[in-house]
Amino acid sequence: MAKDHFHVKGRSVIIAGGSKGLGRELAIQLTSQGASVTIVARNPAALEDTRQELLNHIQTTDQTVHAATLDLTDAAKVEEFIVSLPTPPSILFCLAGGTSDEIGFFADITTKNIESCMARNYLAAAYISHAVLRRWLKEPPSSSPHARHIVFTASTAALLGLPGYAAYTPSKAATRALADTLRQEALLYALQQEIKIHCSFPGNFYTDAFYEEQRRKPALLKEIEGGEDGGSSGKTVQQVAKLTIEGLKKGKYLITMDSDTELLLNNMRGPSPRDAPVRDWVLGLIGSLVWPFYRVKFDRVTMRFGEKMLAGRED
Q: Highest taxon of the source (predicted)?
C-alpha cells in the first residue's frame, strides 16, 4: 500500500481564498476527510454560505469550521490574523487569485491592472505564507509524526505565455518561483520540524469566475485555448480539488492536472525536484520536441489575428 504523505484527519487547515470556486470545493473535501477548516476571504456573505455548507460535511465531534473576513493583500492585517490564532495551522492552502479587469493585451490594460493582478495572485499568497511560516518557526510542534504543509496554487499559465494573459502569467510564474525558493529554505529548519512545500498547476476549470472570465477574454486567447469551454483538458472544480489532494497524498511537490501541463512543466522544470525522475525526464524530452511546434502554431494564429485587427482599424 502506497504511503500517505498528506494527513488531514484531526489537523487544522487554513484555506486562503476558501469562500468560492476551488477553495470552497477543497474546503468541502478536506472537511469530509476529517480536517478542521478555516476559510479566509474578503466576502462575508460568501464565507458564511460556505461555512454553513461545511457544517454538513463534519465527520467527528471534535472538528471545527471557521470563517474569517480578511483582505489577503494587506500584509499587516494578514500578519495580525495569523498571530491572533490560538494555535498555528498544520496546513495552509493559498488559493486566492484569478483575474478581473486584468485580462487583455498588454497595450490595452492599465498599469493598475498589472499591479492588482500581481497583488491578487502573488502577494496574497506571499503574505499569508510568510506569516504562517514565521509562526511555525516560533512555535515548532512539540511532537508530531506529520509534516506541516504550504500548498501554493499556480496555473498552466505560469508555464506558457499566451496573448491576453500579460498581467496574469507573471503573477503565477512568481508564485511558482516562490514555491521553489521556499521549498529549499524549508530545509534550513529540518532539524526543528518538517515543512513541506507544494505547488499545483490547474488549467481551465469550470466555476462562475471562469465563465465571467470567458466573457472578457480576447477572441485570440479563446481560440488558442480551444474555444468557449477552455479546451478539451478543462475540468470541473471537483476534479481539480480531488487531483490536488491525490497529488499531495502521493508526496508530490509539483502537481499537474492534465497531460499538456505535465509536458510543459517537465519541459521547463529546471532544477525543481522531480517526483518520478525517469518518467519526468522522458516527458521533458517529449515536451522539448512537441512544444516548439505548438509555439509556431500559436505565433501564426496571433499574426493572422493581428492582421485582421489592423485591417479592421484601417477600415
A: Eukaryota
